[in-house]
Structures are given as structure tokens and as C-alpha cells.
TrEMBL record:
SUPFAM superfamilies in alphabetical order: SGNH hydrolase (SSF52266)
InterPro entries tied to this protein: Ig-like_fold, SIAE
Protein name according to UniProt: Uncharacterized protein
GO biological process: carbohydrate metabolic process
UniProt-recorded Gene Ontology molecular function terms: sialate O-acetylesterase activity
Length: 290
């Protein structure tokens, strides 16, 4: 956002592709739609100097996962553009439902890692695990990271979902790449995550930690313990998901009202029932064959 006396006010940000965004400042309001690269920008008319405070509101989808995605994507975009003086820290893995960090010490420690590494030349990692490549092969998605990543609790990796071209997501089984598959004892490549689901024979898209207070447990394997951030490689907005699951557009193009959201939730529950029934059948078949 740029505000200068007697000049038009430019406000920009990121949202889901095709998502409608409305910006209001005082009595002025402008709406736009996020581009395919998720960026949006509006220009409000110049406003006179006033002693009265003004409140700016940006209205889009009230979804924590989109907010975290925009937060992280903005950092990546600025860093890629050459801004070497920008840091980043997230705290969604601390699992507090509100946006403002209620557990502050770990957040401060993560920010301190950035300062120690970039300003004081300490050999310490401050970046979360970075996604370098996504490729599909043999009914699986392979996510290549720039460092090893492990579960917080040393159990199975959780928090991933995958979808085919139709955009219908299902929870994914996630494990490291076994470099010795079929040849004996596993040899795990902990910087490559392999995603699969029997319900998604040809996966194309993935999502990770895609909820306001998500199920997730992937972190860097070093002592930094930095979480793999909320991210995805699909272009679908909430309105797109409504179209995918309901087979029709929302009441207002690009925006879901409460009734639309309720319909989408019920449709998602019905879709998830398919997974639960499939898992139940598999369990029963395994029991019968023992």
C-alpha cells in the first residue's frame, strides 16, 4: 500500500486466482479479481489530509489457509525479485486458532534465526524447507525439497492432500522416497516426499496444511525444527471448488455466501465418505483374508 498526500492510493496483495477482493477506505470502495498469478491491485482516489483516523478493510475469503498462503507467497516473490533484506517466520504449527501468534517465544526464536544468519553470519538455518520441484510419475506425486524434512512426532507424515485434473482432493499417503525400493532394506531420501492415494490414480495437484488450523507435522530435520509451510500447486479458488463439487456456480460470481459455503461443506463431507467407505472395505477384506 502506498499513501501520499493528494495522490491516488495504490493497494495490492495476493489472493486465490479469480477470487473477488474488495478494498474500502473511508467512503471509497473498489473491487477487483485476483489474477492467475494470485496478485491483485486497486487504486482509490486521492484523499484530503484529515486529522480523523481512517480504517482500511480488505475483504476476500475469510480462510486462514489463504492468508498463510499469501503471507508465504509474498515472501517468496520478494526474495525471488532480489530483496535480500526480508525475513520470514510462521507459527501455524503451534496450533492456535487465531491469526495473531498467542505463543510468542517460538515465533521470536524463529525470527532471531533469520537475524543471526543474515546479520551476524551465524551458520544456522532460518528458511523453512523449500519446495524445489513437483513431478508426477506412476500414479504418485514427488515433491523435492532443498533439505531433509521429518515428522514432528517421528510417526507417519500427515497433512497432504492430492487431486487429479478434476480438482477433487483426497488425503494422501506421504512417505520419503525409498531409493532402494524392491531391493531389500529401505534407503530413505528424506528430502523427497512421495504422495499417493488409491482414490486418485493420476494425481496432478497437492495441498499441504490446507485448513485454518491444519493437521500437519512436517518440519526441517535439523535443530531449527522449522515447519514446511502451507502451500499448494493448484489454481482453484473457493468459488472454483464450489463449481467442481456442486456442478454450478455460486450465487454471486467469484464469492461464496453462507448458503453456498454450507452446500460446499456438505458436498465435501459426501466426498470424504467415499474415502472412509473405501478404507472400511479394505480393512474388512484384509480381515477376511487372514
Amino acid at each position: 500500500m502506498v499513501i501520499q498526500r493528494d495522490k491516488p492510493i495504490q493497494i495490492w496483495g495476493w489472493a486465490a486466482p479469480n477470487e473477488k477482493v474488495t478494498v474500502t477506505l473511508g467512503d471509497e470502495s473498489r473491487s477487483t479479481t485476483a489474477a492467475s498469478d494470485r496478485s491483485w491491485k486497486v487504486e482509490l482516489p486521492a484523499m484530503p489530509v484529515s486529522a480523523e483516523s481512517q480504517t482500511i478493510t480488505v475483504q476476500g475469503s475469510d480462510e486462514g489457509n489463504y492468508i498463510r498462503e499469501v503471507h508465504y507467497q509474498m515472501f517468496l516473490n520478494l526474495r525471488e525479485a532480489g530483496d535480500n533484506n526480508i525475513g520470514y517466520a510462521s507459527c501455524f504449527d503451534l496450533h492456535r486458532a487465531w491469526y495473531h501468534p498467542q505463543i510468542k517465544v517460538p515465533v521470536g526464536e524463529r525470527i532471531a534465526k533469520w537475524a543471526l544468519a543474515t546479520q551476524y553470519s551465524k551458520n544456522i538455518r532460518w528458511l523453512p524447507p523449500q519446495l524445489q520441484e513437483v513431478r508426477a510419475n506412476d500414479g504418485k506425486l514427488f515433491l523435492k525439497l532443498d533439505t531433509w524434512a521429518i515428522p514432528f512426532n517421528d510417526g507417519p507424515i500427515v497433512g497432504f492432500a492430492i487431486a487429479g485434473k478434476d480438482g477433487r482432493f483426497q488425503p494422501a499417503q506421504a512417505q520419503w522416497l525409498d531409493k532402494n525400493a524392491g531391493k531389500g532394506e529401505p534407503s530413505w531420501e528424506r528430502s523427497t516426499i512421495v504422495l499417493s492415494s488409491v482414490l486418485i490414480p493420476e494425481p496432478v495437484y497437492f495441498r499441504y496444511a490446507w485448513a485454518r488450523n491444519p493437521l500437519e507435522n512436517l518440519k526441517s530435520s535439523d535443530n531449527a525444527g522449522l515447519p514446511f509451510d502451507t502451500q499448494r500447486n493448484d489454481p482453484f479458488s473457493l468459488a472454483d471448488m464450489y463449481q467442481i463439487y456442486l456442478g454450478k456456480g455460486p450465487s454471486t460470481p467469484g464469492v461464496l455466501n453462507n448458503g453456498d459455503k454450507s452446500e460446499l461443506i456438505q458436498s465435501l463431507k459426501a466426498e470424504d465418505l467415499k474415502r472412509r467407505l473405501d478404507e472400511a472395505r479394505t480393512l474388512l477384506n484384509n480381515q477376511e483374508n487372514q
